[in-house]
Amino acid sequence: MAKKNKNRVINDEVLARYITGESGEAESETVRHWLDSDEKNRRYYEIFLQVSSYAQSGIYTDHIDEEAEWRTFRANIAGAGVSLPVRKVWFHQKLVRIAAIFVLVSGLIAFYLLESQMSGPKKELLSGQAVLTEIMPDGSRITLNKGSVLYYTPSSYNKKRHVQLTGEAFFSVAPNREIPFVIDLPGTVVEVVGTSFNIKMTDNKTEIIVETGAVQVKKGNMVFHLLAKEKVTLYKDDMTAVKQVNADSLYSYYRTKKFVCKGTPVRELIVALNNTYDTHISLQDDKDGDMPITVTFMGKTITEILPVICSTLQLTMVEHGNTVILKKRSGL
Q1: Which residue of 184, 228, 241, 324 sits 20 to 30 Å from the alpha carbon of 75, by its own alpha carbon?
Q2: Band of residue 122 on the pLDDT scale cut at 50, 70, 90
Q3: How confident is the model over 34-62, as a mean pLDDT?
């Protein structure tokens, strides 16, 4: 059955572009809305995503009749209550491979659907306009930044510590070597046994920063092992990733109410300030956002913070209604 949103139809081709990072921002937003609108949509997407890594691995599928395999796949899962996207006559190139792999791993799909049906309903944690902290059944502590959502299944959580995240959250995971803690992100899986780390998802990238312990991150064929004070940034558009040392702790501002910058690009500080104080601060020249700033703010109002930023970076403030624009001083 077709799922419509903003006059667009979600079909296999759209999902394939979303998974491979080839969809535009408007189309990506449509897919995210579709995923959030119905649990059956999310279940279908999870299956689609789970086997896409096989398709990207180069398994030979030229000999397979994609049309016949697709019909077989639909027949196999039709009874599971999954709402399938609309089928188009022609395939996206990578979708052809994905469709073939669906049949090759039909046993995996059947197991997944059966497990999903038996696991019970999911619980949604929605932070909305305020930071939200949740103590999980195993004692793990999760802090969601504003505008973030986390899903998990209470009935099976103690046997399978599995959650899904959209937005930003800090995880302090209770140690359990027998049952790893797994976070599902679009196209990425994060797995730990007991550690603390921050995950931040934006439109074009996902950033994972480890505070204590160790974290494993998987995206397609890429695998990263992160230790304390390390981070990896996964870019959506070109499917690249950068692993590096994390120099500051600005990422913790929404938990600690403390802004700590050590050579941090000023645009990142501005994003944190806007999120915390519900302000509309921007830079007149976006290139100025790369300017590094080293400051620490704690217990300060926004009217106390802005003059310090301007003094440090030789900027001036111009107010336009509810917006504050920062620009370079004349002659600089």
Answers
A1: 184
A2: confident
A3: 63
Beta strands, E only, 127-204? 132-135, 141-144, 149-152, 162-166, 168-172, 181-185, 188-192, 196-201
Q: CB under 8 Å to 250, separation ≥6 — which residues?
A: 259, 260, 261, 264, 268, 269, 272
Mind listing the pLDDT tens digit for each residue in 53-87?
Answer: 545 444 444 455 556 655 665 665 555 455 555 54
Domains of the chain in sequence order: 4-119 (no CATH), 123-245 (2.60.120.1440), 250-328 (3.55.50.30)
Model-level pTM?
Answer: 0.64
Q: The tokens of 299 are what?
A: 């217990």
Alpha helices in the chain (DSSP H): 12-19, 25-37, 39-56, 66-77, 93-104, 106-119, 253-256, 266-277, 302-313
